[in-house]
Amino acid sequence: MDWHGVPSLQALRGLEAVARLGSYTAAAAELNVTHAAVSQSVRKLEAHFGVALIQRTPDGMAPTHDAIALCAALTDGFGRIAGAARDMATRNSTRPLRVSLTPSLAASWIMPRMGRFWTRHPEVELELLPSNRVVDLSRDGFDMAIRQGKGDWPGVESEWLMGSVHVVVAGPEAPAVGPLTDLSPLSTWPWLLGPYRQAEIDWARAHGLDLDRVRATEFDDNAMLLQALRGSDRVAILPYPVVSDDLARGSLIDLFEDTETDYGYFVVTRPGHRPETLRKFVRWLRAEAA
C-alpha cells in the first residue's frame, strides 16, 4: 500500500469527527484533545489539499462540497478499523451480543418470543438496544441489526428474515366495517400515525387514501402507537410482524392488508463478522420467522 501523499491519520480523525458530529467542541471531546488541536488539524489538512474542508452552516459545522466524499470515506474506514479492533480485543472473551432494532419490533415480536431463545441458548447473553436510529454497526459497536426495508444498504451484509406487508388495523372499539377493496371508506376515521411514514403514505395513496388529509394523532415511535391503539376506536398502518400476535389474540382488527411486497425485515451484519453467538441468534430468528 502506497501511503505517499496521505496526510496524518490523527489529523484525518479530527476532520472526520468534526464532519460527523457537526462541532469542533464535540469532536475534541470524543477524541480527548483540545478544541485548538482539532481546529489546527483541519487547517493543516486544508493547506495540504489546497481547499476548504469544513464550513459553518445554520445546523453547525459541515463538510464542504469538496470534502463530502473524503469525510464519508473516513467515517466508513475508521468505523471498520474500530469494529475490527473491537472484534480482535474480544475474540476470546464472553460479551453480550449487541443488537439494534426498532422499538415496535422489539416490544411486539422479539420480546414475547425471548423466553424460547433463553431456554434454548442460556449461554448467549444479548444486549437488545431498541432505537429508530439507523446505527453504524462498526462505529457504534453493534454485532447486528434488524432493519426494515429492501435490504440494499451499502457496506453491510443483509439477509432476508421475514416480509413486512402493510396492514391496516383498528382497535377493538372501532365500528364494524364490511370487506374493503380500498382505503377510501376510512378517510373520515381517526388515525394514529407513527414516525418514518413515507412508505405508509405512498402505500395508502396507492390504495385510495391520502394520509395528509385524515384526522390523525402522531407518535414518535410505533411501540407507543401500538399501546394507544389497543382498546381504542382508532386505525393505523403497521407492518404485519408488529401486529401479528395482536391479530391472533383478537386485540386488534385486520381491516385491509397488502398481498405482497418487496419490503421486509432483514438481519444486517458487518461483512465477515459471524461469531458463534451471532450464528445461534440468527438461526433462532429464522426458525421463529418461518
TrEMBL record:
<comment type="similarity">
    <text>Belongs to the LysR transcriptional regulatory family.</text>
</comment>
<dbReference type="InterPro" id="IPR005119">
    <property type="entry name" value="LysR_subst-bd"/>
</dbReference>
<dbReference type="InterPro" id="IPR036388">
    <property type="entry name" value="WH-like_DNA-bd_sf"/>
</dbReference>
<dbReference type="InterPro" id="IPR000847">
    <property type="entry name" value="LysR_HTH_N"/>
</dbReference>
<dbReference type="Pfam" id="PF03466">
    <property type="entry name" value="LysR_substrate"/>
</dbReference>
<dbReference type="Pfam" id="PF00126">
    <property type="entry name" value="HTH_1"/>
</dbReference>
<dbReference type="GO" id="GO:0006351">
    <property type="term" value="P:DNA-templated transcription"/>
</dbReference>
<keyword id="KW-0238">DNA-binding</keyword>
<protein>
    <submittedName>
        <fullName>LysR family transcriptional regulator, glycine cleavage system transcriptional activator</fullName>
    </submittedName>
</protein>
<dbReference type="InterPro" id="IPR058163">
    <property type="entry name" value="LysR-type_TF_proteobact-type"/>
</dbReference>
<dbReference type="GO" id="GO:0003700">
    <property type="term" value="F:DNA-binding transcription factor activity"/>
</dbReference>
<dbReference type="GO" id="GO:0043565">
    <property type="term" value="F:sequence-specific DNA binding"/>
</dbReference>
<feature type="domain" description="HTH lysR-type">
    <location>
        <begin position="7"/>
        <end position="64"/>
    </location>
</feature>
<keyword id="KW-0804">Transcription</keyword>
<keyword id="KW-0805">Transcription regulation</keyword>
<dbReference type="InterPro" id="IPR036390">
    <property type="entry name" value="WH_DNA-bd_sf"/>
</dbReference>
